[in-house]
Amino acid sequence: MRILITGNMGYIGPVLVRHLRRVLPAAELIAYDSGFFAHVLSAPTALPECRLDAQYFGDVRELPDALLRGVDAVVALAAVSNDPMGSRFEAVTDAINHRAVAELAGRARALGVRRFVFASSCSLYGAAEGGPRREGDALNPLTAYARSKLASEQALAALARPGDSFTALRFATACGMSERLRLDLVLNDFVACAVSRGEISVLSDGSPWRPLIEVRDMARAIEWALLRPVDEEQPFLAINTGASDWNYQVRDLAAAVQRALPGTALHINTEAPPDRRSYRVDFSLFQRLAPAHQPQITLDAAIAGLIEGLRAMRFGDADFRSSSFMRLKVLEQHISSGALDESLRWRQTVAAA
């Protein structure tokens, strides 16, 4: 099986490649990435890309057809990957997260690729009062990031034909340790606060609901999507991906980190305006269709893994919210240095430092 992964040099990619190399040892793994975050390594003993058969560099908006020939499956991870970046680069978010995905899927299918796995998001549900959201419930994307994910799902649904296996994994909010760690994720942020400062500062009032999934369980879900049986009557599937017992209010996540690191102070901004992004999610369809690939990591284990990983890094940056572990900060650093332009394309020449 020849698998092409786009956006492999982000947060999920190193964990996914390690997992696929273990469970599909005969697979040929090739990858394509712009390299924006290549240098942001949290465990720099070896490059994660050494596990690949080939690494290619370039803009996903311009991925060459040659890389798609002979490919059995595409895993589309490349994205402007959160709400702050989506707000800062709204047009680019649509171009990369939606239009490039739709074009890639169309070209891949024309070249004989019948399996396409898209990393979507439960953020499509936006502000959702009442019970946990199911796949057929109304969607309410509130941000450019969420809207781009919905537009991609719609494009993939229109492209898929009988014999295809196009899967949009609506992931819960990611968390956990990675060789290219992000700290602009809610649980990762709280653990980094506790380790570096001895206190957790919750920027919201703590009331919003969020479903979470550990990054290793994300990799297991992608494995399932790559291998799941073809359904001739449903060539496109959008599926909530996570576990129902991982629906938490933000303040409960902070309290769990506080319990894991006794003595940590907890400060919740009770004066913060309400965060409308609040939703619980029903994952029963994923439980039914993927019984052998259900999430295995508990919240306490995810927190323990982050603590261990940060301590192994000797992490102590109390100002980490301005560091390279925040994806928006990395892009802003590239732009300010002249390396990237505002469309998030590498410049051909960069002024000497």
Summarize this structure briefly.
By secondary structure, the protein is of the alpha/beta class. The protein has 10 helices and 12 strands.
Keywords, separated by commas or semicolons:
alpha/beta; three-stranded mixed beta sheet; 12 strands; 17% strand; Rossmann fold; seven-stranded parallel beta sheet; 353 residues
Describe the structure.
The structure is a single chain. The chain is an alpha/beta fold and 353 residues long. The protein has helices at residues 12-23, 83-88, 90-110, 144-159, 186-197, 215-227, 250-260, 284-289, 299-312, 327-336; strands at 2-6, 28-33, 54-57, 73-76, 115-121, 165-171, 173-175, 199-202, 209-214, 236-241, 247-249, 265-268. The protein has a domain at 2-182 and 211-247 and 279-297: Rossmann fold (3-Layer(aba) Sandwich). It is built from ten helices and twelve strands. A seven-stranded parallel beta sheet has the order 3-2-1-4-5-6-10, sandwiched between helices. Strands 7-9-11 form a three-stranded mixed beta sheet. Strands 8-12 form a two-stranded parallel sheet. Helix 1 (12-23) packs across helix 6 (215-227) and helix 5 (186-197) crosses helix 9. The model has no long low-confidence stretch (mean pLDDT 94).
| Average pLDDT | 94
Please report the total strand number as a whole number.
12
Q: Encode the helix/strand succession as letters.
A: EHEEEHHEHEEHEEHEEHEHHH
CATH topology of the domain at 2-182 and 211-247 and 279-297: Rossmann fold
Taking Cα atoms only, what radius of gyration do you get, to the nearest Å? Answer: 19 Å
DSSP helical segment count: 10
